[in-house]
Design a protein that fits this description.
The structure is a single chain. With about 170 residues, the protein is mainly β. The longest helix has 9 residues. The protein has a single domain, classed as L,D-transpeptidase catalytic domain-like (Beta Barrel). It has 1 helix and 14 strands; from the N terminus they run βββββββββββββαβ. Strands 1, 2, 3, 6, 7, 11, 12, 13 and 14 form a 9-stranded mixed sheet that branches.
């Protein structure tokens, strides 16, 4: 049962992500916000989820200021998105035999990444993977199901998070 208000709130109707002292435009999945039923549906999952940790590209900037655990990404980092694989919705190392998203990207979208605790405790095979809070494209194009905002706004929001932070997507 949620006893404290969410640290971050995504309101898909207004297109904003809100935190204690601010708000910023954000992008959501191409399928909108709703009940996520399967891998690849483009839906940003409705609900309240823990923020597990923050990942970042140390070669593209300093570690974000935040009260959450922070880890630097490595060029071989990936995230398994292959239903049926034993490491589905878990971090992996490339090369990986099954389908796995590259976390070390050339397009800068994963320069800073918040890992949203969706379908991870426990993992339901095929129900959706790799739901992140990450950097938006310049035109705020829809994501594959993640929440994305400008890097400067993402850093501002993360700076206010403390251990146990959550994100509400509504």
């Amino acid at each position: 049962m949620q006893t404290t208000p969410p640290s971050l709130v995504v309101d898909h109707r207004s297109g904003l992500l809100r935190w204690a002292s601010g708000a910023a435009r954000c992008a959501i999945g191409r399928g909108g916000v709703g009940v996520k039923l399967r891998e690849g549906d483009g839906i940003t999952p409705l609900g309240i989820y823990p923020l597990r940790k923050i990942l970042y590209r140390a070669d593209h900037g300093p570690a974000p200021r935040t009260g959450l655990p922070v880890e630097a990404l490595n060029p071989d980092d990936g995230w398994c998105d292959a239903p049926g694989d034993p490491l589905y919705n878990r971090p992996v190392k490339h090369p990986y035999a099954a389908s796995a998203e590259k976390m070390w990207r050339d397009d800068l979208l994963y320069d800073v990444v918040g890992v949203i605790g969706f379908n991870d405790d426990p993992v339901t095979d095929g129900a959706g993977s790799a739901i992140f809070l990450h950097v938006a494209r310049e035109d705020y194009a829809p994501t594959e199901g993640c929440v994305a905002l400008a890097l400067s706004d993402l850093r501002k929001a993360l700076a206010e998070l403390e251990p146990g932070a959550t994100i509400e997507i509504r």
